[in-house]
Input
Amino acid sequence: MTYSIAAWDGRQWGVATQSKFLAVGSVVPWAAADAGAIATQAYANPRYGPEGLDLLRQGLSASEVIERLTSADDDREQRQVGVVDARGGAATFTGSECFDWAGGRTGDGYAAQGNILVSQATVDAIADTFEATAGKPLAVRLLDALDAGQAAGGDKRGQQSAALLIVERDGGYAGLSDVAIEVRTDDHEAPLAELRRLYEAHQAIFGVTPKEDWVPVDNALAAELRERLAALGFTGDLPEAIDAWAGNANLELRVDGVEAIDPVVLEELRSQT
Output
C-alpha cells in the first residue's frame, strides 16, 4: 500500500514515500550520511533500516545488502525494499507474495518501488521524473517524483501519509547534524500537498540563500530595519536588535551581521510590520 524512492545525487541521500497507512514516515525511510538510503515497505520489516545501514557502512553494495537482509528473513516474500549505497549503486526487491501491483525499478542513483498500486505506471512515473529532474535539489526531485507517481495512479487504496528524509554530512541544523531535511505528514487527506508545504516552510527557515543574492544594507535600508524592529519591540544597536528578532522568528541561521541581509529575512520582517 506504499510507493517510495530512495536516492543519491552525489552529495545527499534521501527517501520519499507516500502510503494509505498512518505515519508512513515512522516505518519506511532510513538514511545515514555515512552509509546510504533504504526504503522498507509492504509487510515492512523495520529492522531492514538500521541493519541495512550497518551493512552499507561495512562497504557492502546495495544488492549485497538486500541479499543479506532477505536471506535471513523467513517472511521475505512479503517484503519490499529499495537500497542506494554510498557509491550511488541501487537495488530493489519485491517478494512474490506482495499484493499486486507490486514491483520496482532502479537507475543511476535511485531505487523506486511500490505495492498495492494501480499499475506499473506509478513506479515508471517516479523513476522517469527523477531521471528528468537531474540538476534540481534532491528534495525537489523526490517530491516531484512522488507527485508524478500519484498522478499516474498511485496507491490503489488512496492516500493518507507521506514523508521526506534527506541526509548530508554536517548538512543539518547549524552544521551539527547530518539530517538536512525531515518532514512528515502522518494523517492528511492530501498528504503530498501538505508534505510540499512543510518542505517549503522548512526551507524558509533552514534554507541557504547564496551570499551574492543578499541585499546590501545602505543607510536607507538600515533606517527601515531599525524602524521595523522597533515597532516589534526590538530596539538598541541594529546588530543586537536584528539578532534578537531573528532568534525570536527562528531565522537566526539566516543572519550574519548587518552589512547585508538575506532577502528571506527582509521579506519576513516586512511582513510582520
Notes: The chain has a mean pLDDT of 97. Helices lie at 48-57, 62-71, 121-132, 138-151, 191-206, 219-231, 238-248, 263-272. The chain has two domains: 2-206, 211-272. The chain has eight helices and twelve strands.
